[in-house]
Amino acid sequence: MKTIHLKSALISSLIVYAIAIIAFVASYFYPVMDDADLQANYVLSFVIIPAAFIGAHIYYRKGHLTNGIVLGLIMFLIAIVLDALITVPFFIIPYGGDYISFFTDRVSG
To answer: What is this structure's pTM?
Structure first.
């Protein structure tokens, strides 16, 4: 197994995170379901799959040979940190949420 290239993993993770946040927030502007939070979670669930492919493509296009599971775990950990530092303080707490509810809430109602 080759070593992880943290700079490339961080850039890939930031791109996946940005795509996910944009889709999540944008879903609130186009109400289709009665429950806007549930709709946003569904949109995020669908968008995260192609976003992860894009992130992996960006990472591997430079010829890195890191195991995909290792890259996925690193990107997942970076996403958790970004959620704790950006998503919760700026998008969840102002609307009455908190860290515990964000990290323990179910995706579907």
So the answer is: 0.86
